[in-house]
Amino acid sequence: MEVIQLEKIKYHMLLLNSLLVFPSANARFYFLSLETCAVNNGGCDRTCKDTSTGVHCSCPLGFTLQFDGKTCKDIDECQASNGGCDHFCRNTIGSFDCSCKKGYKLLTDEKSCQDIDECTFERTCDHICINHPGTFECTCNKGYTLYGFTHCGDVNECSINNGGCQHTCVNTLGDYECHCDAGHKLHWNKKDCVETCNLSCARKRTEKRLRKAIRTLRKVINKEQFHIRLSGVNHDVARKSVRVLETQEICGLGQRHVGNKCVSCSVGTYYDGEQESCILCPNGTYQDNEGQITCEPCPNPQNPGNQKTAGAHSISECGGQCSPGEYSVDGFKPCLACPLGTYQPEPGRTSCFTCGGGLMTKLTGATVFQNCETKVQCSPGHFYNTTTHRCIRCSVGTYQPEFGQNYCISCPGNTTTDYDGSTNVTHCKDRHCGGELGEFTGYIESPNYPGNYPANTECTWSINPPPKRRILIVVPEIFLPIEDECGDYLVMRKSSSSNSVTTYETCQTYERPIAFTSRSKKLWVQFKSNEGNSAKGFQVPYVTYDEDYQELIEDIVRDGRLYASENHQEILKDKKLIKALFDVLAHPQNYFKYTAQESREMFPRSFIRLLRSKVSRFLRPYK
Ligand SMILES: [Ca+2]
Ligand SMILES: [Ca+2]
Ligand SMILES: [Ca+2]
């Protein structure tokens, strides 16, 4: 019975197969009446199911059944509430992809976008990093200027109107100092120079010596070692009965006890022996040193401007200083306006700068050089030469952003400009580049990155990996101006010889990342730029891996799926993820540092699937 039934089915199959192999109008008509999933999938696009009422077509997830009841059409998920994507939604056949704006990363729910905290990366800013939604900002410590977006270079204050120094200006890292010619010393405003010894200074010097003598006297009293010789008899004088506990250390001058420790009185205070504590400097005095037993009198204590200066840390807090455009003998009120032909931009000065070259000012009390009546007005990128009365282009390595100045500002740190006549600090570029590389991981970057690279530059790196290791390189993105016929290029090959095995060569901009292994064991890398059309350049990380992994690494980097989705591309651009990936590639044992949970949170699921299949295929022969 069963056998007969089977034979029957076989017969039907044969019949149907022959109909399929030789389809004709007749044949089609013939089996329309007996529709079944066994024939032509019942006419269904995808899934077919035989039911008592005939065939029933259905579609997989991501598709919808059309009115004909057979065809499956892709659902455009992006039409309904943006597919649930935070930022961008891109429809695909059978599915959809979310992606994020620049500066955001897609979370592992593959829908939400989160700001990238660039400040958690290494080397983001030279000094201070401030994270913002979708971006970040670098700032520099005092005395430094930002260049190339993320770098900080020392300001050469001396290039700005001689640092305001009356005599010599000496630039230092993060600061500067004014120095005075022989026979002069620096005024308290640290810029003006005063003659070392006229009558008033001699008096001051005596006062100072006296103060010192009093200090010494008080010191010996404090130490209770005061001897007096009266009528040829020695007397030991004790100030008070011994109160200092044996266990307590005897504090130095200007210090007080805090617990069992001695602490110097801070600036703006002095040590008072009577009260045995640090007291705020009274009105009309200041103290700019720690551990003192007196406060210095303000230069002009009878001045009404000095009323509220209790605890003053410096002489400038004494108040009553001359305003910009004014001067006086000591820099304090009463002040005189800078006479015609002079100007003074700073407060508390003892003199004014002359315009030079016989130039006049319209009014007295001028505060800036621009008040001097120059013969021509100089545009940014130039300075006014008071000898020739002409505008001179700022020389290479200097810039001037303002109109009508009499100086150009030196570029910060070790940067310089490509050309003369620069108008902005962004024209200052670091030219440093190249070198020998050979660690397990590292990077090469164009000079001044991420600022524009300098013109006419040539950098050469050589990567020489440790024994039995090979080089893997990721170019996350590279910006070279396309419009100038390969004037700027990056090349990686075996040696400096132009016909040696080449691994990579480009003179264009690619925002899509690419990963590749070096075709030679060592790598010689060169970047060259010509005179015009600069761009951001590149920062290219590399890692060296054990040559036993060659097959696996090649398998991964050659798989187009690695670069296909925008989210995978983001991995190769994500400095943190690249670091984690490279860390494991360089030292495979570090894989165990990352828990499954961690890697799930770090990488998109599709990326893990891609890697896992390759790794298991690679490992299988050894199992
Ligand atoms: Ca879709
Ligand atoms: Ca950010
Ligand atoms: Ca400096």
Textual characterization of the structure:
It comes from Podarcis muralis. GO terms for molecular function: calcium ion binding. Keywords: Calcium, Disulfide bond, EGF-like domain, Glycoprotein, Repeat, Secreted, Signal. This is Signal peptide, CUB domain and EGF like domain containing 2. InterPro entries: CUB_dom, EGF, EGF-like_Ca-bd_dom, EGF-type_Asp/Asn_hydroxyl_site, EGF_Ca-bd_CS, Growth_fac_rcpt_cys_sf, NOTCH1_EGF-like, SCUB_EGF-like_domain. With 623 residues, the protein is an alpha+beta fold. Among the domains are: 73 residues, Laminin, CATH 2.10.25.10; 39 residues, Laminin; 158 residues, Spermadhesin, CUB domain (Jelly Rolls). Helix content is 17%, strand content 27%. The chain has nine helices and 42 strands. The chain has a five-stranded mixed beta sheet, with no helix packed on it. A hairpin with a 2-residue loop joins strand 13 and strand 14. Helix 4 runs antiparallel to helix 9. It is elongated and about 130 Å long. The chain starts with a helix and ends with a helix. One calcium ion binds next to strand 5 and strand 6.
Instruction: Round the Cα radius of gyration to an integer and report it.
Output: 40 Å
What is the CATH superfamily label of the domain at 435-592?
A: Spermadhesin, CUB domain
Uncertain spans, ≥5 residues at pLDDT below 50? 18-33, 240-246
CATH architecture term of the domain at 435-592: Sandwich
Attached small molecules: calcium ion
Number of strands: 42
From the 3D structure, determine the CATH topology of the domain at 435-592. Answer: Jelly Rolls
* Average pLDDT level: 85
Strand content: 25-35%
> Strand arrangement, largest sheet?
33-35-41-38-39
**Percentage of residues assigned to helices:** 10-25%
Classified by CATH, the class of the domain at 435-592 is Mainly Beta
What is the SS-derived class?
alpha+beta
Cα end-to-end separation: 50 Å
What coarse outline follows from CA principal-axis ratios? Answer: elongated
Figure out the total of helices: 9
* Biggest beta sheet attributes: 5 strands, mixed
Pfam families: CUB (PF00431), EGF_CA (PF07645), Ephrin_rec_like (PF07699), FXa_inhibition (PF14670)
GO molecular function, one term: calcium ion binding
Protein name: Signal peptide, CUB domain and EGF like domain containing 2
Main location: secreted
